[in-house]
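This is your field. Have a critical look at both lines of this record:
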Amino acid sequence: MDDSLVLSTSDSARWVAVYRAWETARAQPLFHDPYAHLFAGTQGRAMADALLTRYAYNGWPLVVRTKLVDDLVQAAVVSGCDCVVNLGAGFDTRPYRLHLPSTLRWIEADLPAVIKEKQAVLRDARPQCDLRRVKVDLTSPGACAAVLKKVLRAAPDVLVLTEGLLIYLSGRQVCALSRDLMDRGVRRWILDLSSPAILADLQTALGDYLPASPMRFAPADGIGYFEALDWTVAQLYSIIPAAQRFARLPAFLQAFTLGAQPDLRELGGARWSGVVQLEAQARC
């Protein structure tokens, strides 16, 4: 397989865009993303096609993840959130495709090359809300804190979204991010989380495409990792039950919905992934 198909982790965003485009083309899609195919490109399509051939993998977990995050974001906005900060936004198009109030502030932060391409592709599209973009390398020390300080006004009701980002960070970087969010008064944080076993599966399946070991973060203590950092779990959705509810779960995995859910604070060898909304605990 051609290692040049994916030259950086940003190319995984093209791969994810393929699955959003495939879902959009279905007769009854879970969401509609008319821009996804514009970002897929040759690299993303080649990656998705190869995984479909080798593993019969059509991206259903990523489709389900997208739908779950969509629903959580829209529920947060309805409940009063007035600012969304999407860290590592990649080629996400929620500001264009979701029904959002025009007064909502939406901040996207990502690498300069990603932002430049995104602006070019979407130059003729109109976002539903007040969209702004920040060019930044979020892996640099202090980068997240600098972004939050720059974009947040006095005490807004902020939701931070890190879909697809944390898995590429180290544990130390995730702790630093958590501290930055707390220090800036962020109340809500939506993230996706996988167990070490799922991480190993991804590294095996994607090893021919992604740079050497780019995926790292999958804490064995699951949601307990974030509880230890003073967050509480407000919403939690496991991907497999959600996929069954959305009629996207492959037939050969139906049996996995019958067993008990693993202890989400002691994941061990369990194959589990999910979407989590955290809320900051009140500080004394």
Q: What stands out?
A: Confidence is low (pLDDT under 50) at residues 1-7. The chain has one domain: 59-280. Residues 59-280 form a domain with the Rossmann fold fold (CATH 3.40.50.150).
